[in-house]
Amino acid sequence: MEFDPTTLTQFAVDYGLKSLAALATLIVGLYIANFIKDLVIKMMDRSKVDPSLRSFLSSMVSLLLKLLVYITALGVLGVEMTSFVALLGAAGLAVGLALSGTLQNFAGGVMILLFKPFKVGDFIEAQAYVGEVKEIQIFVTILTTPDNKTVLIPNGPLANGSLINYSTQPTRRVDWTFGIGYGNDLDKAYAVLHQLIAADDRILKDPEPFVALLALADSSVNIVVRVWVSAADYWAVFFRMNETVYKTFPQQGLSIPIPQMHVHVHKD
Prior knowledge:
By secondary structure, the chain is α+β, with helices and mostly antiparallel strands. Helix content is 52%, strand content 19%. Strand 7 (210-216) and strand 8 (221-230) form a beta hairpin.
């Protein structure tokens, strides 16, 4: 088989020109990709985007832009890209279906980091768990429960489900229901409860504490007490008031009834 020198030269020239064009496309494209990535990072810095989300998004933008540059350079070089792009799309679809749960958690992590329904250090209740947020990762959020257990909650259900954040407000309302026996002095019970409330400096004066008759129950007259405290004092005030009422009511002649059932037996 004979080679035509002219054809061979023309092929070398064409391929050389394409190679130079592809190399130039690669160099310029990578420079533009880095420029766009830096621009995105600066925009997220100005918007005060969470550092975890900023790092992840910048990496993703850089990866996608570089992939686009490489595909473009291969196209300039003369590589047929239609089949390659179709194959890449099919592979991406298969991976997406296989990792649907993981992608849902990823999307949930992005939403959490972007909209900030809670932050590290907040005390939340979600997905049947209660605890302090220790870390927000892109796929899971890590909580530490009050009894020092570590809980990993997937971000997908966490972002789409109901959530209670106990740390967003500086104050919280503490509610109690105290029962006294029928025949006890109701006004005296009111007075004792107001004295106990006034004696605790952690209870706020504004909003004003609320004490009222809640219900005439089967075995007791129930009194509702509602006060406001700093969020950090909630449990300390709650437990202390329970203990104080239990000790004080009997001293003041107020009985704390227990459920009773009277059974009458009749003989024929």
